[in-house]
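So, could you explain this one?
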Amino acid sequence: MSNTIQVSVWRGAEEGAFETFEVPRQPSQTVLDVITYIQRNIDPTLSYRFACRVGVCGSCAMTVNGRPRWTCRTHVDKVAGDGTLQVAPLRNLQVVKDLACEMTEFFDKMNRAEGKFHPTKTRDDDFDFIKPDDKKRKQASAGIECIGCGVCYAACDIVDWNKDYLGPAALNRAWTLVNDERDGGNDVRLAAVAGDAGCHACHSQQGCVEHCPKHLSPTHSIAGLKRETAKAALKGLLGGDD
């Protein structure tokens, strides 16, 4: 095995090109370690994002050898057996510079999907007691570990085809709230996700499931939204425009 890695890194914004660097190979080395080495020892102008380095924040997500990944949890030995790496920014997001993407659109779509809690009580009211084995609680729990890293969004071909599509993360978030007994925003939420850019645009290709680092199933959540919006439509709760 070679003592070095040949790393092709995207440089520039939307228009740019790959630049190749030679980086020393180290035991238990992650892709984030490689990018950090380049920035600290070869080219300090390289732009990228990271924070926790341990798979908690999701901010280090990039495209590694064509696949969206958390670079802090991706070991070089698993993806660069031939001693080469290609690292690019996430797909489906505007590139700010090099490996850093603009995430505003991603989070705006969560807002458009009503991915925010609508309280039904005030701080003066008593707590709601919901059993862990409650059916709706289990549905919510299955999706709440999403940390908004954008990997599923980058992996989604529907987002690539339809820029208005809300995307798997936003719809997964909406589904967790649909199943939250304390939330009072389902009428407006189901209307928000029922349009042409919402849950029914999903083709169930499951790229989001395949790539999610948290092993969630946004496809399952989206299927749940399809059922609930259909029920709401039959009850006339979605309005005349949907």
Notes: The mean pLDDT is 95.
